[in-house]
Structures are given as C-alpha cells and as structure tokens.
C-alpha cells in the first residue's frame, strides 16, 4: 500500500498531468488559426515517423469535453496545457487577434475551474508562429520583444484565472534539436552557433515576460511565472575517476545550468560552460562571445526571473570523458563527454529512456543545493510504451509508484521543497519526431478510431488512487 510506506504528501500538494497544444489539439487551420513551425515542418515531411503530423492529433480542439472527463476521472488538482501562439495571434502579433482562439482557451480554463481544477499554462511549447520564423525565428534578437507582446496579451486576457505560468518549455530541447540537430522544427542543422543564440534569445524573452508580469500584473493577478527546464541526471561512469566526475559536472552545466544558472545564480552562464566553449572556439578560430553571447545591460536582467523551479525529468545517464569525434564546431564538441546507459537500468519503449526514478531524487537534491532551495514543480515525468497497446500497463504502474516514492523521499529526507508533480501525459499524443509510435498517456487514444476514443490505462487508475490517498492523508 502506497500510503503505508510513509510517503505522505501535504494536502495542498499539486497533482497534475500535462499536455501541449500541437501534440493534442489538431484543428491546425480551424477558425482562423495561423500556421506554426511544426505545421510547416511536418508538411514538408522532415523525418517525423511515417510522415505523421499533428493536423488532427487527439482533436482536443473539438473534443475538449472528452479531455475534461479524463481529467476529472483522475482526480487531478491541476492541469498543465499550452496555448498555441498562432491560434491566438495568427501572425504572431496582438495586432491580429483570433477571437475564436481566445474563446477556445477561455472555455478550457473556465471548464477546469468549474470542476475545481487549477490551471498551469505554458505560453510556448515548441510551436512558434511561422510568421515569426519568417522573420528569423528564435535566432533573431527581435523575437524577444515579440514574445513579450504575446505574453502580455495572455496575461491581460487570461491572467485573472491563471495563477501558474510557464513562459517557455524546454529551451534546451528547442535550441539543440530544432537548431543544431534538426530533429525538431524548424529543422535547422547549424552546428555550433545557432543553438547558443536561440537559447540566449529564449532567456531574454523569458526575462522580459517575467518583468512585464512582475511590474504590471502581479499585484492584481497574484500569480507566479517561471520556465520549464529539462534535464537528465548525470553521474560519473567511474566515481573514482576525476575526469569522469568533471565530465558529469560539465554535462549538468551544459544542460540544466545553461538556463538555470543565469536565472537562479549569477545572471550569466556557468563558468564551466563559457570556458569550455571559449577553448573550443579558439581552437577552431572563432571568438567565444561570437558563439555564446553576453547579456546586455539594455535588456531586463535575467537573474531572479523565476518564482519557482519547473523541472521536466525523464531519465539518467552515466558520463565519461572524451569520446567526441565530431570535428565540426558543435555543442557536442564543446561538451566533450560521452553519455552511456548503466546496463542495470531497464529501458522503456524508446532507446534513450532508461527508467531511473532515483535519478529524479538526486536531481531534486542537486537543484536544492545549487539553485538556492527554490520551490519546485516537476512539470513533466513519464514512461513510454511502444508496439502493441497494453492497457494493463504493469511496468508503467510500477514506474509511477517508484517515482512518486522517490519524490516523497526527496521531500522528507532531503528537505527539497517540491510543491507538485505533473505526469506526462494526460493521454497518448503526437510525440514530435516519434509521431504516434510512442505512447506516454495515462489514457490511451485510439488514433484508428474516428471518434479518437480515450481509454484509461491501468497506470491512470493507479495514479488516480495515489492522488485520492494523498488528498485524504495527513500533512507531512
């Protein structure tokens, strides 16, 4: 029994599930919505599994009532969703507001609140309006002001009811997979330069939006604003080897530190990151600042622009030194580490996803120690299924029990201030480059059925039980 293990959560602990607009909504041209970079990327057949796309996805744009029933069945206290920027502002700017998009999100928010479910809204979850990409996208310095205008529009329109805001989801993933590796939209493969520029502009955009909220809306709306950072847990392959230890530190700096260090610690990138990039740049005849920019005093400061720490965690890696044979000037070369899986870690579904619940606890402790003991929301965490559908998903049930137990230990034994946990995902959806071949849902969606029927997995029922027990338990 979960509760008898002593893993009790406070009564006000946030229990949620997460989704994102492009992955579930469909309706890609419905009611005046503009195109996003993921619409363009998928329609150009850019390497997504079996050329699949999110044109329909779970059709949440038309089937929102079904989603709401799933949310109620789980007993969630919170639901994390993202707004489609191009559904609200088809050309990316508030000069052209799509009222049908505003009506849709108003309905979603109001329905949730009527069911006593609070809302966490992500403003940007990978789906930049194509109109803004045409202006240079996240590589362009001007994108930060455009994002700030969009954020202010959302605060103004929905902020009376939304108390938890995420500005940008996983800037690391967007920068690296979208602009260096080319696996995600907009599909760029600009080795060694674009990713750092994109990350920099995302931090600038986030900081501008946070300052806008802080100065104009916070006093009346009383919400909180952060950004969601993804990171694996990294530990040395050989803990007695100094090179492996420093390699693991470098990997953490280049993943979590890249965005958390400027916001929570110094207002600038980690020294270990800047020096590694400068070293590689000199060897290749570049100036370091040309690749990893400096923050301008003309912009609002980035330090202190998070009211909580939002963490997306999926897996862990063992790290050893060297192993980078890529002669191109790239992030991989700057990092100069090799990541491996521990053979004792089971791998679920996809090759990159080893199941390491204890890694989450270690990462939470690291965040407490390094980033000044912030409030933490785990904004994504999940377990993939591939191949034949298993509604009786016993392995995923065990995963959720083990992971939530590790979160409880982080709180009780390590003193980490974890305020909430959001499972990824409410339901099976379009998993980016993997299309519909990978399933993370608490509910199965039958994409071969015209009705796109939702069926609860056994893991969804287990998660609902954990939530129900937590709500009835004594506080920690």
From TrEMBL:
PROSITE patterns recorded: GLYCOSYL_HYDROL_F1_1 (PS00572), GLYCOSYL_HYDROL_F1_2 (PS00653)
Keyword annotations of the record: Glycosidase, Hydrolase
Catalytic residue list: 380 (nucleophile)
Gene Ontology MF, one: beta-galactosidase activity
Keyword flag Iron: no
InterPro entries: GH, GH_1_N_CS, Glyco_hydro_1, Glyco_hydro_1_AS
One Gene Ontology biological process: glycosylceramide catabolic process
GO (cellular component) term, any one: membrane
Family assignment from sequence similarity: Belongs to the glycosyl hydrolase 1 family.
The protein's name in its UniProt record: Glucosidase, beta, acid 3 (gene/pseudogene)
């Amino acid at each position: 029994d979960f509760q008898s293990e002593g893993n009790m959560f406070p009564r006000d602990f946030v229990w949620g599930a997460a989704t994102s607009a492009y992955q579930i909504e469909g309706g890609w041209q419905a009611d005046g919505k503009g195109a996003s970079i993921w619409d363009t990327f998928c329609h150009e057949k850019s390497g997504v599994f079996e050329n699949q796309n999110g044109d329909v996805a779970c059709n949440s744009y038309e089937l929102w009532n079904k989603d709401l029933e799933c949310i109620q069945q789980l007993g969630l206290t919170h639901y994390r969703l993202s707004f489609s920027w191009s559904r609200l502002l088809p050309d990316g700017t508030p000069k052209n507001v799509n009222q049908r998009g505003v009506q849709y999100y108003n309905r979603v928010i109001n329905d949730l609140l009527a069911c006593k479910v609070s809302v966490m809204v992500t403003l940007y979850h990978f789906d930049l309006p194509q109109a803004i990409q045409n202006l240079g996208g996240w590589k362009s310095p001007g994108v930060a002001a455009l994002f700030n205008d969009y954020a202010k529009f959302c605060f103004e329109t929905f902020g009376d009811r939304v108390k938890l805001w995420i500005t940008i989801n996983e800037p690391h993933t967007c920068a690296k997979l979208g602009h260096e590796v080319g696996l995600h939209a907009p599909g760029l493969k600009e080795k060694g330069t674009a990713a750092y520029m994109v990350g920099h502009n995302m931090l600038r955009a986030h900081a501008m939006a946070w300052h806008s909220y802080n100065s104009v809306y916070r006093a009346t709306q009383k919400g909180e604003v952060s950004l969601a950072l993804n990171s694996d847990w990294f530990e040395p392959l050989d803990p007695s080897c100094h090179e492996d230890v420093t390699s693991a530190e470098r990997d953490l700096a280049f993943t979590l530190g890249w965005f958390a260090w400027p916001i929570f610690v110094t207002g600038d990138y980690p020294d270990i990151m800047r020096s590694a990039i400068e070293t590689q740049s000199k060897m290749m005849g570049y100036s370091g600042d040309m690749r990893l920019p400096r923050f301008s005093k003309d912009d609002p400061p980035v330090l202190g622009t998070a009211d909580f720490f939002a963490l997306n965690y999926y897996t862990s890696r063992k790290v050893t030194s060297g192993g980078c044979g890529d002669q191109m000037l790239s992030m991989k070369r700057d990092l100069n580490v090799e990541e491996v899986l521990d053979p004792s870690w089971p791998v679920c579904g996809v090759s990159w996803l080893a199941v390491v619940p204890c890694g989450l606890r270690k990462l939470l402790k690291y965040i407490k120690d390094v980033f000044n003991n912030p409030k933490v929301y785990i904004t994504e965490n999940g377990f993939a299924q591939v191949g034949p559908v298993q509604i009786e998903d016993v392995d995923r049930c065990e995963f959720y029990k083990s992971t939530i137990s590790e979160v409880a230990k982080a709180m009780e034994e390590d003193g980490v201030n974890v305020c909430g946990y959001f499972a990824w995902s409410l339901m099976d959806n379009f998993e980016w480059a993997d299309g519909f071949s990978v399933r993370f849902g608490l509910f199965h969606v039958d994409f071969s059925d015209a009705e796109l029927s939702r069926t609860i997995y056994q893991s969804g029922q287990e998660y609902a039980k954990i939530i129900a027990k937590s709500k009835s338990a004594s506080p920690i």
